[in-house]
Amino acid sequence: MSSSRWPIRVGRRSRLFIRLWTARPETAYAELNAEFEIAFGRIRFRTPVSNLERWRIEGPFLWITAIGVRRGVRYGDISFAGSPHGAVRIDLRERVRWGPFRVPAVWVAADDLEGFAAALASRGVPGIDARGER
Predict the structure, then answer these.
(1) Terminal C-alpha separation, the chain
(2) CA-to-CA distance for 126 and 66, rounded, in angstroms?
(3) If DSSP states are collapsed to H, E and C, what string results for the chain?
């Protein structure tokens, strides 16, 4: 399977703020090959594609709750976002150690949410677009 890189959308107003995470538009992406990797500047998250259980597109979100690298207090998931336009939530089969945390899911605010979800589906990861379920 070939490698594919999906840029994380970085909003015009968010660019200065996301530099707190050393991220710029060219260093914020998700990559699918033998492994699934997310880069947000110097911050990285990595797991085998076989550990991806399912995906779900959600959003848009409030700007203040979406931008940057964040860890959810309630469930312990982490998000990588440079824009509040929406994100793909990826649930993991087994939690992944990320620093002192064990992560159950990640959110990726890919620029092309549908294209990124289709790439996951082409690798056998099932999912849904939940944006119309409100």
Answers:
(1) 35
(2) 24
(3) CCCEEEEECECCCCHHHHHHHCCCHHHEEEEECCEEEEEECCEEEEEEHHHEEEEEEECCCCHHHHCEEEECCCCCCEEEEECCCCEEEEEEEEEEEECCEEEEEEEECECCHHHHHHHHHHCCCCEEECCCCC
Amino acid symbol at 130: A
- Token pair listed for 122: 């082409």
CA nearest 126: which of 56, 48, 46? 56
Chain CA centroid to CA 90, Å: 7
Side chain identity, residue 129:
D
Q: What pLDDT digit, counting tens, does each position of 72-105 carry?
A: 989 999 999 988 899 999 999 999 999 999 999 9
* Cα angle for residues 26, 109, 37 (degrees, 5° grid): 65
Q: In terms of Cα–Cα distance, which of 72, 109, 68, 69 is closest to 87?
A: 109
Structure tokens at 48: 């085998």
The whole-model pTM stands at: 0.90
Structure tokens at 94: 């087994």
